[in-house]
Design brief:
With 190 residues, the chain is an alpha/beta fold. It is built from six helices and five strands.
């Protein structure tokens, strides 16, 4: 098995590569199509994976991954645990502006607050941004694709004057990892 490395391959001119990692694969394909439809400026390649590490086959022909996106369905405990296990296989360099988490179903009443808190802790411990998406509607998927496309272009170095590290400092959680309690209501009230 192989873990993607952020600087193991040279970037391609005016090209960005994103790897969408989702265990359940319920949003991946819709999001990949929306990213390709929304893109107009450069060449974007979208890769899909259920988990990390990636298979060793075709490793030499695999392009450099500019952004890792961990998609977590908050209604599913298995989705969160798959993201946690995949993060263990991530190279440390991806924590610096080359990875993010995308949470879905955050507004659902059936989601335990502890699961959202766990995801927030995971994103804070990795120093990665945590984005939220409404995956039930086409408009929600389109907005999520637009957000990810902006993050991807910065991570790939296609936006002059900005780097993934700089953007990571602007979009990371403002709540320190040690302040995240078991429920979000605990830290919101303080």
């Amino acid at each position: 098995m192989s873990a993607p490395r952020p600087f193991s391959k040279l970037p391609e001119l005016n090209t960005a590569n994103v790897l969408l990692v989702e265990n359940e694969m319920s949003l991946q394909k819709k999001l990949a199509e929306a990213i390709l439809q929304e893109n107009r400026d450069c060449t974007v390649n979208v890769r899909l994976a259920r988990c990390l590490p990636l298979p060793v086959e075709n490793e030499e022909s695999r392009p450099r991954i500019d952004l890792l996106v961990f998609i977590v369905n908050l209604r599913s405990e298995q989705s969160l645990s798959a993201a946690e296990s995949s993060v263990r296989h991530m190279e440390p360099g991806y924590c610096l502006g080359k990875a993010c988490f995308l949470a879905t179903e955050a507004r659902c009443d059936l989601v335990p607050p502890e699961r959202l808190s766990s995801l927030m802790r995971l994103a804070a411990s990795c120093h990665c941004p945590l984005l939220f998406a409404e995956a039930q509607t086409a408009e929600g998927v389109k907005v999520a694709a637009q957000r990810l496309l902006r993050v991807l272009k910065v991570s790939a170095g296609l936006i002059p004057g900005t780097t993934g590290l700089y953007m990571s400092t602007l979009t990371r959680s403002i709540v320190p990892a040690d302040r995240l309690a078991d429920t979000p209501a605990d830290w919101l009230s303080s």
